[in-house]
Specification:
The protein is 31% helix and 17% strand. The protein has twelve helices and twelve strands. The radius of gyration is 21 Å and the shape is globular.
């Protein structure tokens, strides 16, 4: 099967903008809570109190920034920020994705970092009209309403930080077994209310200035955001005249058995994914490292790649997420979406790779994070979760279309 479109939304353009967003979190949340209270008042609901905002990246005005035609007739109080981000991404993909065949399946990857909507509605005592009860209390109740699709089926994957990666493979499996010709994968991370603590602790220190594979790496800020992909049966994509950006040629799952990255498991999962892709060991392969941002996990990733390189001597590594902080649930696909989005718009992919310098890298027997992604037709994307899941997805870019759509106004890859 092939990926025919990707998109993503993120609150900041670069690291400086991210730090500015974090500094303004109190101001942003004051506006966000005021907006939620207007929505609650419109349906006769109670007022939400404002708790201190945890240091993370937030969208300033999700309702204004991300309109969703599919829920225009639903009171905004019954649409969470995460649902809004996911639905906006899906509508973007549907609107520009050419003919979407009947029988499309939507797979949502939910990291469950926010309070659930049913819990929020019940705890707050928000009035819900009888005809909207099913939609409001069903975790995937809004997704079949997406305009431009004909009664899509919907499934939900909950796999912590690996949710998006596993959702991608759920869609792949459905196309592989003939269940569907087309799948839309979406994963978002957002906050409905500002819990005054981090439900999943990421990073350390007030600025998180040193990102993965740097000497003082302290992890990331958590960030709101979303990614989306369209997958199609390859023959159906050719039939419908929809250009493919990449082919999903192999994948594998594994588990660490702990929350700490296990180099042996990462090496094994990567090798099994490469075997599934049928790649000759002499093939040049690029691996987009996950990058948790601490010396133990980052060092384990680097060591895992050195072990894989014993069989694939032309393997190199990259970090294609750039300055992006940690969008819980879809961090493992940030590099994939950035790479395919750049190729689709004809933008050079060379600048996507970060090339940090550190003692951790210099001490390795293999040079890491120096590769130019433009030089590789086969790329592996790794995804992990704090609960021990690990996923590897292999993309074949050799026949992928380049420059098939315009860059959206005001938006860089």
């Amino acid at each position: 099967m092939v990926i025919t479109d990707v998109t993503g939304i993120y609150p900041a353009a670069d690291r400086a903008a991210a730090l500015a967003q974090v500094e303004r979190r109190g101001e942003i949340w004051t506006g966000r809570v005021a907006s939620v209270n207007r929505q609650l008042a419109a349906v006769g609901g109670p007022e939400l109190g404002q708790a201190p905002a945890v240091a993370r990246l937030y969208f300033e005005d999700p309702e204004g920034e991300f309109p969703v035609a599919s829920v225009e007739d639903i009171p905004p109080a019954l649409v969470t920020i995460g649902e809004r981000l996911s639905l906006h991404v899906i509508e973007t993909l549907v609107d520009r994705g050419g003919p979407i065949p009947k029988g499309v399946h939507i797979t949502t990857g939910d990291a469950e970092t926010d309070i659930s909507k049913p819990t929020f509605l019940c705890a707050m005592g928000v009035p819900v009209a009888p005809e909207l009860v099913g939609t409001a209390y069903d975790p995937i109740g809004l997704f079949p309403r997406v305009r431009g699709l004909r009664k899509p089926s919907v499934s939900r994957v909950v796999e912590a930080s690996a949710s998006a990666s596993v959702a991608l493979l759920d869609a792949v499996a459905r196309i592989e077994d003939g269940t569907s010709e087309c799948g839309i994968v979406v994963s978002s991370s957002a906050r409905l209310i500002p819990l005054p603590f981090e439900t999943v602790h990421v990073g350390g220190g007030p600025t998180r200035a040193a990102l993965p594979f740097e000497d003082a790496a302290s992890g990331h800020f958590a960030s709101e955001g979303a990614v989306g992909l369209v997958l199609r049966d390859e023959e159906a994509a050719v039939r419908d005249g929809v250009p493919a950006l990449a082919r999903v040629s192999g994948y594998a799952y594994g588990t660490f058995g702990s929350s700490v990255v296990n180099r042996l498991v990462v090496a094994d999962v990567t090798l099994r994914a490469l075997d599934a892709a049928g790649l000759d060991p002499q093939t040049p392969v690029l691996v987009d490292l996950y990058g948790r941002g601490n010396r133990i996990d980052d060092g384990a990733e680097l060591a895992a790649m050195e072990k894989v390189r014993e069989r694939y001597p032309h393997l190199a590594t990259a970090y294609l997420k750039g300055d992006r902080h940690y969008v819980i649930g879809s961090h493992g696909l940030q590099g994939l979406v950035r790479l395919l989005d750049a190729r689709a718009t004809g933008v050079s992919v060379t600048e996507l790779a970060a090339h940090p310098e550190s003692d951790l890298l210099a001490a390795r027997p293999v040079r890491h994070l120096v590769a130019d992604p433009a030089d590789y037709a086969h790329v592996v994307f790794l995804g992990y979760s704090v609960h021990g899941s690990v996923v590897a997805v292999v993309l074949d870019l050799s026949a992928g279309a380049v420059g098939v759509r315009d860059t959206e106004p005001g938006r860089a890859a």
